């Protein structure tokens, strides 16, 4: 693949050659017009030197400007345009301001200026013409003549029209090439965006966004942050994996992880990794809402996951999976080391520290459907979440017993104002969250409950 510097050099060389040929052709038009005037006797022989000068100058300007254009391209273009304007002004005076050739010379100059740099360059060219007129008028007396020989007028007109047409054709071709290049760039950008979207699936969205926005650098670096760390797995999954075929187990697991990931992202969690049926998530990096809100978001996510397991169990029962499966979770809050770990060629964005180990141990100690949290997490969420004191437990890797708490539910959802009703028995499972029922679905929910009640009421159960 061509490097950026090589592409720039090629682009500069192409531009230099384009300007070179354009200037050669413009001065050739002037030389032909002047030579015709000399041949017809309209131009005095002592002014015939302008013809070889017009033929030589473009080559001289190209070679002299070649070195400066590489270092100061825009400045060199402006200087050469000013010299073209001065030359045009001088030519007008030496031609005694004869109408037709003078207008043709001005047309060539102004068309070139507009193509090169727009109105700003047009104004610069006009000013340069005035400078050339003024300087030449001081040195050479002017005898204005309005009429030129018909042949000279026709030659200048045809040559100028030819220059304008060729220039317009070239600009058109350049526009087509630019359009093709733009399409190619857009196609490459779409491919790069598609590739980035595919690669992003291997990263947490927050990490991916921070890298692509330039907020984080992809290098081996870490920092200390206060995070809330979450671990979960499915109790009974190992036994289930021995009973199900690999394909059915894969579908079940992917369905479960997909739903859990959606809940995690909805609560702002950074998904660290999936390990079989286990999930590791942390809150507080790359973005944070403060330790208290991060901890509350982690616990809120855990409660939402526990509730959603009732929906998944209903789906699994419909697929013939009758073995009950429950999620168990552990959450701990504290300072961790977060960042890129690994090698320069292969790294993971993850976290390490005692709080990571504690959250993992709490998840292992939890019963089915239980959420265990550390004392630090409890102190941050206790005003919003009701928890039960589970006392002290010995945790591997910690010299002293650890105080833990069991998450019950949000305080607002307990008692008479509870927003949900749930119940499970063999052959019966119900989970109703009134906060999530839309108003336009209310009648359908009531109808479904009434139909279920009528069927159960009329059923004779032996």
Describe the structure.
The protein is of the alpha+beta class. It has three domains: 4-188, no CATH class; 226-413, Nucleotide cyclase, GGDEF domain (Alpha-Beta Plaits); 419-462, no CATH class. The protein has helices spanning 4-39, 50-71, 73-94, 99-117, 119-139, 150-200, 205-212, 237-243, 246-266, 291-318, 354-365, 375-381, 442-458, and strands spanning 222-235, 270-275, 278-283, 326-343, 346-352, 371-374, 385-393, 402-410, 420-425, 428-433. The strands form two sheets. Strands 1, 2, 3, 4, 5, 6, 7 and 8 form an eight-stranded mixed sheet that branches. Strand 4 and strand 5 form a beta hairpin. Helix 1 (4-39) packs antiparallel against helix 6 (150-200), helix 2 packs antiparallel against helix 3 and helix 9 (246-266) packs antiparallel against helix 10 (291-318). It is elongated and about 125 Å long. The chain starts with a helix and ends with a helix.
